[in-house]
């Protein structure tokens, strides 16, 4: 992988890690489900007008849009709005990787290796430790909601595998057409027109401008720029070489939450975070096989889930 591409992969990790700060800012102005609908609606309109259809079956696009788009961000945004620390959210969402492996085994009959199972168990142990720690602070529900978001992302990943799009970026952009209607409907039912109207009528305030800035970052840098660079990297390089860079996302997320929001995870949470990241990395790579001669080739790692 060329040095230029490694730097671009690092840039994407930084963009996606900072995305959680932008979500935090957005939720300071907009109700969580309505904010998710806005995010995708802003992308969906120009997509319908200017982006070619990705040439996939509609059911796979719907599955990806409902899983990755609707389910993931409804649960994640509500979790962060109800007390999920921003940095920990970026970490717990990595549970999508082991969830994808397990769901692939159940629904797509994909084989789970011993190494993958070991990585899953490590990641689960780390997640359970974080949940236990948060339960002591009466904040278990946001962790559960974030895990449900990761599970939704994993279901979306199954639809992506079955779709096998020729142009992944077009597929991601067209996915954005699916979430707005169900999200706006949920927002009306759960948050009500009064709360939605308040968030729109106060956009000129300081909080409103910060919220708009956060939303703009999520749409432009977190989605379009980040996904565009990532897709180009996946085209030019083996997927297993690029995908592990996504494990830097929670590192950036935790660091930025500490620096900007003064979120200070406990020592137990830091150790658990390292276990989670190590488990995901261990389970998403193949062990280097020993060959009897000098022609042996190193096996490439399997990809993990990405944003």
Automatic annotation (TrEMBL):
Transmembrane segments: 32-54, 61-80, 86-108, 117-133, 139-159, 171-189, 209-230, 242-261, 267-285
Principal subcellular localisation of the protein: membrane
Record key words, sorted: Membrane, Transmembrane, Transmembrane helix
Stored SUPFAM superfamilies: Multidrug resistance efflux transporter EmrE
Entry superkingdom: Bacteria
Segments forming domain EamA: 7-130, 142-282
Pfam families attached to this UniProt entry: EamA
Localization per record: Membrane
Membrane topology label: Multi-pass membrane protein
InterPro entries named in the record: AA-Vitamin_Transporters, EamA_dom, EmrE-like
Family per record: Belongs to the EamA transporter family.
Annotated protein name in UniProt: EamA family transporter
Organism whose genome encodes this protein: Amycolatopsis azurea DSM 43854
């Amino acid at each position: 992988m060329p040095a230029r591409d490694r730097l671009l992969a690092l840039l994407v990790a930084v963009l996606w890690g900072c995305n959680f700060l932008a979500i935090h800012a957005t939720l300071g102005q907009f109700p969580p489900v309505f904010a998710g609908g806005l995010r995708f609606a802003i992308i969906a309109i120009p997509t319908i007008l200017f982006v070619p259809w990705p040439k996939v079956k509609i059911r796979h696009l719907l599955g990806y849009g409902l899983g990755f788009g609707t389910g993931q961000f409804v649960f994640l945004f509500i979790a962060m709005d109800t007390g999920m620390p921003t940095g920990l959210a970026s970490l717990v969402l990595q549970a999508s990787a082991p969830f994808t492996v397990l769901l692939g085994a159940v629904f797509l009959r994909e084989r789970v290796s011993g190494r993958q199972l070991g990585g899953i168990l490590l990641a689960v142990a780390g997640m359970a430790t974080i949940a236990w720690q948060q339960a002591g602070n009466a904040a278990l529900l946001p962790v559960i909601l974030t895990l449900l978001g990761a599970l939704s992302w994993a279901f979306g990943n199954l639809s992506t595998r079955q779709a096998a799009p020729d142009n992944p970026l077009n597929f991601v952009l067209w996915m954005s057409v699916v979430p707005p209607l169900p999200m706006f409907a949920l927002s009306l039912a759960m948050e009500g027109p009064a709360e939605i109207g308040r968030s729109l009528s106060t956009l000129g305030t300081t909080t409103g401008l910060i919220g708009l800035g956060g939303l703009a970052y999520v749409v432009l840098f977190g989605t379009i720029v980040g996904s565009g660079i990532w897709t180009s990297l996946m085209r030019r390089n083996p997927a297993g070489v690029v995908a592990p860079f996504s494990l830097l996302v929670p590192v950036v997320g935790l660091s930025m939450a500490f620096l900007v929001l003064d979120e200070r995870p406990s020592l137990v949470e830091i150790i658990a975070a390292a276990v989670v990241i190590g488990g995901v990395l261990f389970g998403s790579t193949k062990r280097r096989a020993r060959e009897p001669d000098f022609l042996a080739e190193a096996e490439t790692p399997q990809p993990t889930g990405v944003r």
